[in-house]
Design brief:
Blueprint (H helix, E strand, L loop, with lengths): L1 H14 L2 E5 L5 H10 L5 E5 L11 H17 L4 E4 L2 H6 L1 H5 L6 E3 L1 H11 L4 E6 L1 H6 L1 H9 L4 E6 L3 H6 L6 H15 L5 E5 L7 H8 L4 E3 L1 H15 L15 E5 L3 H11 L8 E2 L6
Parallel strand pairs: 1-2, 1-3, 2-9, 3-4, 5-6, 5-7, 7-8, 9-10
Helix pairs in contact: 2-12, 6-8, 6-12, 10-11
Length: 283
């Protein structure tokens, strides 16, 4: 009897959704990779659009915001949480994972591991928000795996507003990117981590400026891969057997739901018909 009950509970957890959160819309690049690579998994996404960006916030506030969002996602009965924000992964992940009884995955670890595998000359560049670069979290992850690797960080604060404005192929964005990347490229890096979830949306531009000799690491893709391995290891992967009639993807924001929906529809392989606005301060 006990075995049957336990098997039933495991099956119930397999059907539960994945919780994903970000400071705004950038985490949708992680959602896109989960949709592509784990198509049977249901997703509850929260974008903290009222308090974006996190990159200029204090660690204390980022931890508080992350705790509120996690409390909300737990009300949605999620089976795992993905912190689809480099800043929150850098500043809050260690603090919040101690409070959880479900698995939680950040975007920094998967990206760092792939960078270590990719570099040949042991010179790795990281671009990200001011908070992510200042935290040196990528540096610590990478050098814990290979102490010989030298990591060069560059904050690119203008990328987020340019991406959210939709200027993905604009000449202004190209000029900004050229200025940001020129310093890193002079360091003879052979690997570059896109250390903000917005940045994959301008990957082709960065690729063009960096050249063929620099391998780009997309932590959004690597995070989806790591999530898949984690779910398999814990026997939590959704088989899709009970998905019929269920809402596969739910989207919540703290502000500007209509604008969020428009942006989501421009990048996701799924038609977002509604994003629900909630008061995240209640959590």
């Amino acid at each position: 009897m006990d075995i049957n009950i336990e098997e039933s509970r495991t099956a119930d957890r397999r059907d539960a959704p994945i919780g994903v959160f970000d400071s705004g819309v950038g985490g949708l690049t992680v959602v896109r990779e989960i949709m592509r690579n784990l198509p049977e998994e249901r997703i509850v996404y929260f974008g903290d659009t009222a308090r974006v960006p996190y990159g200029s916030k204090s660690q204390e506030n980022v931890i508080r915001f992350s705790e509120q969002i996690i409390h909300f996602l737990q009300t949605q009965d999620v089976k795992a949480i993905v912190v689809a924000c480099n800043t929150a992964s850098a500043l809050a992940l260690d603090a919040v994972e101690q409070e959880l009884d479900i698995p939680i995955v950040g975007v920094i670890g998967p990206g760092a591991r792939m960078a270590v595998e990719s570099t040949k000359n042991k010179r790795v560049g990281v671009i990200g928000t001011e908070s992510t670069i200042r935290s040196r979290t990528y540096d610590r992850f990478i050098q814990a795996l290979d102490s010989e690797i030298v990591v060069f960080g560059k904050a690119c604060p203008l990328f987020v507003p340019l991406v959210e404005e939709g200027w993905l192929k604009d000449s202004v964005t190209e000029e900004v990117a050229r200025r940001y990347l020129s310093e890193l490229l002079r360091k003879d890096i052979d690997t570059l981590i896109l250390g903000c979830t917005h940045y994959p949306l301008i990957r082709s531009l960065i690729e063009k400026l960096a050249g063929d000799q620099v391998h780009l690491v997309n932590p959004a893709y690597e995070t989806a891969q790591e999530l898949g391995r984690l779910l398999e290891r814990m026997n939590l992967q959704n088989t899709g057997e009970h998905n019929a009639g269920r809402e596969m993807y739910q989207f919540y924001v703290s502000d500007a739901a209509e604008k969020f929906g428009e942006f989501a529809n421009s990048i996701l392989p799924y038609d977002v018909t509604r994003a629900r606005k909630i008061n995240i301060e209640e959590y």
